[in-house]
Amino acid sequence: MIAALSGKLIEKNANSVVIDVGGIGYEVTIPLSTFYSLGDLGSDVSLRIHTYVREDALQLFGFGSAPDRTLFLRLIAVSGIGPKLAVAMLSAMGSGEIVSAISSDNLAALTSIPGIGRKTAERMVIELRDKIADLATSESAAVAGANGSYGDGSEALDDALSALVNLGYQQKAADKALKKAVQEGTELSVQKLLKRGLQILARS
Fold this sequence. Notes:
By secondary structure, the chain is of the alpha+beta class. The chain has ten helices and five strands, in the order E-E-E-H-E-E-H-H-H-H-H-H-H-H-H. Strand 4 (44-53) and strand 5 form a beta hairpin.
């Protein structure tokens, strides 16, 4: 079972990366918290990995920090939460916010994530409240330090919209949130647009 990968970053998207390890390219699904911390194409990258095996597929999920991977594993242990939904949660809120929401019984915050209904949120609180005390309660500092720009911003907008739709948001709502982010003067980079777009969607 693959537990970690270290190699060259040869492809980078908001929801996935391809890492070249000894001439073999591994496609890895990632949350936005990990995407924010990635370097440029061609740079060295090291991710903690969870290998998800099904009858018809083998899928790799990657994380930039051990706490993120640990939280992911605890989330998928909850009935009704699969790997894809757990990644969507880490993308929409960040590990620190999720830990805080579960610890404080903040069901409103948890149910603001697409795919998380009230029953699932309640189940998370009941099953995980006493199992997450060891996890950090603040988001990765790497998020705040990540930048990156894409020309006139059109490609960044397209990538950000695609990422939000893949996270479960309706395209119309995601597009509206991104346009509002641009009108507010948000930097035209995928990272900044996604972060602000998610904040707007969470309040809508």
